[in-house]
Amino acid sequence: MTLTRLVLFSGWGIDARIWQPLIACLQARLAHVTETDEQADDGADNEAADKAKSRPLEIIAPDWPEEGPQAESRAGSEPTVSQASSLGGADTLWLGWSLGALRAEALAKEQAPAALVSLAMGPSFIDQAAAEQMIPALAPEVLDDFRKAFARNPAASWQHFLRWQASGEASARNCLRHLRELIGRHPVSREAVLAAGLAELASRQMSLAPQSELPLEFWLGKQDPLLAPGLSVALRAQGQMVAEFEGGHCLPLSATEALADALLARMGLATHVTHISEEA
Fold first, then answer.
1. In the chain, what percentage of residues exceed pLDDT 90?
2. Is 13 left (phi over 0), alpha (psi -120 to 50) or beta?
3. Given a cut of 70, is residue 72 above it in pLDDT?
4. Cβ distance 12 to 125 under 8 Å?
5. Which domain of life is it from (predicted)?
6. Number of H helices and number of E strands within the chain?
7. End-to-end alpha-carbon separation of the chain, Å?
8. Residue 248 near residue 167, CB atoms below 8 Å
């Protein structure tokens, strides 16, 4: 089935501007695929040619309430009601990055997208001692220490977080520079909103519903410093769909082309995918 709408959810402390390189790459890729198809029209029937020319891809990258350059003046972790009411549907793929994946999984129960991709996030960020799923996650004290530092100095802690997530990339310095060019050197969200997001990271847990209810895939960076060792192996052992990319936590920036190829293939808008590994 061909999916024609993509919704991108950003993570903690980083607004939807993070998606600009990926959106540009997707549009360029799709234009190339369509152009290639048109060149092959001479040997194809009219129906196939028309199908190739009618591959619109709608991309939506909403900011969470009270986050982003034009923050909504309302609380809560889901998109605004006007946005959320039209984000799901049988033609829609959701891609949630980091905390955005945990939030999207909860929202998907109401909005019912065709499928959800969890990018750079497992079923939980922090080990949930009471959880039934024995899937690796970071130790609670890792986030506890960060939350204490954030309470003392939010701005410095946010900068540290940017460096932390960029540290797994092949060129951490270039990744950090690119990240700051996109989102600036200061958080746009209020401190209280960021603190609430950290509380979500500490407590949110995916339900891992049956694939028949919500097709869910985990797309993870092989060098991600924010993921627990053994996560991919454990997910596969439980029958979860996992794909691994060369990169760390900042896959929207470090693996832009690979993500674009994988998304177009997953949505049925391309015939092949590159730069992606599904090996254990």
1. 68
2. left
3. no
4. no
5. Bacteria
6. 11, 6
7. 27
8. yes
